[in-house]
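Late entry, written up from scratch paper. The run itself happened at the end of the previous shift, but nothing got recorded in the book at the time, so transcribing now.
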Amino acid sequence: MSVVFVGVDPSSKNGESATVWLSTETGELFVQSYRATDEEIRECKEAGSGPGHSTEVPPHETIIRIPVSVLQILQEACSASGPHLG
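Output as recorded:
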């Protein structure tokens, strides 16, 4: 798999960088960010999920919190993913 760096949270401190990468083969995004707290996970579960989907988080998945300052980087990554799917 070939992965390219897309961007890092411009407001983050050293060692605490929300970061986004893009797979040039699949168009999938990889995001490094803050783990959601137990309270945030509980609130997500209370908010519900789509029909036919459980609000339980499987052991191989997690909920992350993405800072608002990273949303533009995610938009750039989504825009860039199209041409890479070839």
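The chain has one domain: 3-84.
(Scratch paper discarded after transcription.)
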